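Continuing from the previous page of notes. For each protein in this section, the sequence appears first, followed by its structure tokens. Read the first protein now.
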Amino acid sequence: MHINRQWIKSERERRAWSQEQLAVAAGIGVRTLQRVESAGVASNETAMALAAVFGCELDTLRVESGRAFRIRWSDAWRAVAASAAVLLLAGALFLSTREARASDIQLEVALTATQEHARHFTLRVPEGMPAEARLERELRVVFTPKPLKDGTILLAAEIYRFDGEDFVWFAGPSGIVRDGEDATFNLTGGDGKIYLITVRTSRV
């Protein structure tokens, strides 16, 4: 898609980030970001990753009929978006430091690749918000839990595989789980490598 490269570059420079820092925060390759800023063209996955880092809607980045969408941010929202991005730059998974609300959901995640030990993550997020776990230079999984009226949880996952330069979309499974139960996704890559993703959800 065509995106507003001037806006992206301006927001990056306003935060005093290098291209390398923004690329790490978004989970994309430096060369991918360089192409975005020079050509104004990006895949849907790259655009979504950049929107998540800047804390804006995807439509903010899109360019239609030669004109970019405009957005107005309050100072408070800018501070929240910048704080989240700084945590990503530090290599940490987002974990809110505030007191957990009744609507928060905790995800106990285990990511396993063929013949490798599982890597475990504990993520606590507000309902309906995304949370990320990854195997560096291999697998990136974005979970979005949404409580349903019957007490179950709709768990959606967006799975990306590393292609040597960038994470590219691979699969988007979803399912309904009960509080405290495990959800398991088994995936096989084109190279025959098998990935096992196990998630246990609980309200906190």
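Done with the first. The second protein uses the same format. Note its length before scrolling.
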Amino acid sequence: MRINIGLKVFFGSLVIVFLNIFYVVVVYKLSDLNNIAHILKKQDMVQQAFLQIGRLNDGRKISRIFYENLKKPVYSEAFQNTSRNIASILDTMAVQLDSVELLDSAVSQGGDQSLTTEISKVTDNIITINRQYAAGFTQIVAIDSAAASVLSARTKETLARTLDDCDSFFIGNLNKAKQMIDEQTKSRIKDIESRINNAKRITIIILICISVFAALYTLIYSSAITRSLRKLRESASYIGKGNFYFDPSGYPRDEIGDLAAAFFDMAVDLKRTQEELIKSKRLAAIGEVVASVNHEINNPLMIISGNAQFLEMSMQEYPAEIKERVRTILEETERISQVTRKLREIKNPVVEDYTSSGEQMINLDRSTQET
């Protein structure tokens, strides 16, 4: 399978991008600090509401004392208005605590949900006590408005003790709720610190992984490229020295592999060009030798041939044996003349073994033929 260098670099970058995305997702899932921040904000609102209820309850208690001593309606109205304000704040707090429970369930490593449930129960108790407190005071006001009797006085005393108990329970539950919220806030802060520390650890681990992967990928990939380029450089050096053997195998199937294939084609072309150049030089050398041979041999050969012909014509009365020797001279001179003509007609020198010892010679008949 062919994979280009650009594609390899893209794959390496893609892996690094995926690691970064994984890091962001993990940290986001681990932190979930937005929900915890909303929980802390709502808990602070509930805490402030409890403090406000405590101040209102102190004012309500003062209104009750003034009413019991002065029996003025203004203090009764102040008590009732304060009770209604407290009831309204408690209803708002109940809604806030319900939303805190929902956020708790959305946070995987959230704070102590049982503590949140316990705070809601304490708040419900405060709401119930507040209603009893307001109802008891309303009964006292009703008794004061009616005709006094011994039975009414006893009922009023019982209601007064009930109001004292309600006030005591109200303050106790109020302090308990505030203490529980303080504990939960501390727990939330510790949870945030733990999440931040976990996020830091994961950040360090993932950054180390990204760095190690990038370093190893760069080292391995650059080593592979450098090794291939060094091999190409050595091959180019061998080709430059006249060694045209080049093995294109063992290279990666990418642009470097294409370059190796181009080197192989170049080596083949250079070898063929060198062979053709050697052949042309050989032909030129043979041509020069043939010209010299023709000049040095043909001139005396013509003289020998001419004298032999003259002797042949002048030896009519000579013995046949002598005439035969003259004809042999003419035939051999003609043979030498044919050899020189073939030398001039050499087109593609064909070398063959001449002796068993390894000596070679040019086959003139095959060398004059077209290839």
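What the second structure shows: The mean pLDDT is 76. DSSP finds eight helices and two strands in the chain. We return to this in next week's lecture.
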